[in-house]
Amino acid sequence: MQFVVNGYFVTMLALMLTAGSIGDIRGHRRTFLEGLAVFCVGAVVCALAPTVAVLVVGRAVQGVGAAFLLASGLALVNGSFADGERGRAVGLYMGLTAVSTAAGPVLGGLLVDVLSWRAIFLAPLVFPLAAAIVTYLRVPETPIDAERRPDARGAALAFLTIAAFSFALIRGPADWLDTPVVGAIVVAVVGAGLFMRMQRRADDPMLALDLFRSRTFSGGNAVTLISYLVSAGVFFFVVVQLQSTLGYQPAAAGAALMPLYIIMLIGSPLAGRIADRVGPRIPMVAGLGVIAVGVWWISTIGVGSSYLTGVLPAMGVFSIGLAVMGAPLTIAVLGAVGDQDQGVASGINNTVGQLAGLLMIAVLPAAAGLAGTGFDDPTFAQGFERAMHICAGLAVVSAVHAATTISSSHEQQPSPRMGP
């Protein structure tokens, strides 16, 4: 089961940077369509898999397609609208992403109950097929830089490094001294050093390190790492708390969070509009402050908490904060680079966000004193409170960092390597 889930996750994470760079070179519309095709092929392999090993391979192929979809999808949205419209478009993109994230497990559960687990790979193919038709007919291609060439060596080294790092974070919490985990850490550290050295010397690097000279770009990615760790930690721990402490059934625990995704669907485009008018810094700082308040309130959820008076309002405040913060954060990161680097910027930002999820699983339970503790352990409730207090503190740190690094301007800036 672990390999079936992580086979998708590791390939997606490891190829995100490469996918963004390829999109900048070959065009994001073309790359997005190719990603859809690869994702569908992987889904068919999964649905027809005769063994678990083939199922893992199919999931890995899906992860490759997902990397191209995520990197080029966001770049297409950002590049298809003028400066005054980008905030609303990115906000709607993020709101719909939240809704689909919530609906996926519900629809998947119904397909498994009514048909078969194989149906969760075949039935949803109507969505990528529809997306391919709409993209082909309605979405314009982004600028193509025919003179640039994909950095094949850099891409291979990035894949090896991030895959090793991902493997270590996924398997490490069970036993950090296990030989494969130690080996993966060594490979990741050495690979990262070689990759940075290669990128500094390359004439046309896959990852333009000069982008990080932008205070807004580097600061925005730092805020992404911290805030995504907080949000992933909250959703993960709350779902477990609802089941282990309050006695919710799994389906009820998932349904309990549905109103929160609706808040994000409505609020994210509004926050994007605000960012278009006043710049991303103010809504980012305000949203992170609201997140901190909501997470601290969430820490009080325990035995005897009512859904209507305890769970829903606390999670509602948290979700309002996410909606206010999310779109302006993405706008700030992508607005810090020029049009020719939108794919790279999107790939970096998506990679950072996915790494935050891995770090949450590896770090937050241990920091809350829950390492090696089962979900049915009586001490989980105390660990849940500590974990939420840690997340609230991280949200405050992220708000301070955003206030000091994010530009108040809402207009897109040229990439640092392009000069003033």
Mean pLDDT: 81
Ends apart, CA distance between termini: 51 Å
- Principal-axes shape call: globular
Roughly what fraction of the amino acids lie in strands? under 5%
Largest sheet: none
Oligomer: single chain
Low-pLDDT runs: none
How helix-rich are the residues, as a percent range?
A: over 70%
Number of strands: 0
Q: List SSEs in N-to-C order.
A: HHHHHHHHHHHHHHH
The number of distinct helices, counting runs of at least 4 residues, comes to: 15
Q: How big is the Rg?
A: 21 Å
Structural class: mainly alpha
Which key phrases capture this entry?
single chain, 420 residues, mainly alpha, 15 helices, globular
Set down the secondary structure blueprint.
Layout lengths: L1 H25 L1 H21 L3 H28 L3 H32 L4 H4 L3 H13 L13 H20 L7 H23 L13 H30 L5 H7 L1 H21 L2 H18 L8 H29 L6 H26 L12 H26 L15
